[in-house]
Automatic annotation (TrEMBL):
Domain Dienelactone hydrolase: 29-237
GO molecular function: hydrolase activity
Name recorded for this polypeptide: Dienelactone hydrolase domain-containing protein
Origin superkingdom: Eukaryota
Matches recorded under Gene3D superfamilies: alpha/beta hydrolase
InterPro entries documented for this protein: AB_hydrolase_fold, Dienelactn_hydro
Pfam family, one: DLH
Amino acid sequence: MASSQCCDNPPTLNPAGGEGKVVDSFGGLKAYLVGSDDSKAAVILVSDVYGFEAPNLRKIADKVASSGYFVVVPDFFHGDSFVLENAERPLSVWLKSHPPVKAFPKAKAVVAALKEKGVDTVGASGYCWGAKVVVELAKSCEIQAAVLLHPTFVTVDDIKEVKCPISVLGAEIDKISPPELIKQFKKVLSTNSAVSHFVKIFPGVRHGWSVRFRHDDETAVKSAEEALTDMIHWFHTNLKLTPKLKPSM
């Protein structure tokens, strides 16, 4: 079960943030879009509980797009992202309305919309809550590459069923997906020669670090940039795009 660590450092949401645009419907969901419409490779970013209006998430989307991808950040919560200050609706209650498994069919519809648009290959990254959605896509052959960042709700059994190249980026200080669990994921993946994988535990960072870092924390920013670089490299390797310059936050 997700702990309070899942909600540390809540972002100040900004519906107008980012270099891209927000559309009312992409695959049936409101979404933030950025990148070239002509790109044949796309990336879906699945947010944590704070949703698609988080400024750092949109900056990540912009950086991924600048590397050559068409990027979609769907609003899986339909405007109802988690609000830490709402004492009457704690995370355990909010999750009853937004279990990750409920988002899986919606994510499939986003993939279908990308294919209809003419995209050849699709990758997906999931942060915390979003990692469970992405691993479901990876289990069902919906995507060609997956990245899980400080995952929540992802189990060893999920990892056993993954069918596409997958990268798992974990945190050293993580009560939800502790290093011991990430190492179990690596052990399982190492026995599956049919699925390429990359597993890394970032030292000195906490659950949520890659998307909920503070810009005045140099160490946190450096670790987040490293995670972003690893993620983009994974997509370049498995979605067959030529690498561009190293991104920075």
